[in-house]
Amino acid sequence: MRFRLTPRETSFYDMFAASADNIVTGSKLLMELLGADASGRAEIAERMRAAEHAGDDATHAIFHQLNSSFITPFDREDIYRLASSLDDIMDFMEEAVDLVVLYQVEELPKGVEQQIEVLARAAELTAEAMPHLRTMEHLTEYWIEVNRLENQADQIHRRLLATLFNGKYDAIEVLKLKQIVDVLEEAADAFEHVANTVETIAVKES
Fold first, then answer.
1. Quick one: which H or E segment has residue 20?
2. What is the C-alpha separation between 84 and 57, in angstroms, rounded?
3. pLDDT tens by residue, 43-59
4. Measured between alpha carbons, how far is 201 from 73 in angstroms, rounded to an integer?
5. Which of 15, 48, 72, 201, CA to CA, is 20 to 30 A from 32?
């Protein structure tokens, strides 16, 4: 790691860790959604909405700290990009839950549980990785695994689309379900964006 003669603002590390922990909360709510009935899904959506608001607050706190700090632990644009990408993950997860409730989806297609399992694993890895930003150590395995998970998510997404277009569902149901699985795929992409940003930061700091 590059040697520095100037002090660094360290509160960013705690805020990134808190943001990632909140994403784990969101991924657990997604898992709960799979086995919930209509009333349970509405309650989960409320809790997810609260988690998304908490994520927004965490992101705004990072931006405020960024604007008020003279010295930052790494490049300002990378701090902004990392905070924004973490926020995107929560936004996509909240949107997926909200769509399930708004569209009154009775049964999600087989394969959505695999999408959500991938997101849950990526959330755990991301939360585990954030504290390592302090030292920039033990991060390589993280971004390699998240990129592998994103590739897995792509394959699951393609299989889900094939299922939706096999003639089993009517046109309106296809539109509803496709939007949900597309948003879950965007969440997987957002996890990869976080991992790629962490890799960029680590390379710059090496």
1. helix 11-34
2. 12
3. 999 999 999 999 999 99
4. 10
5. 15
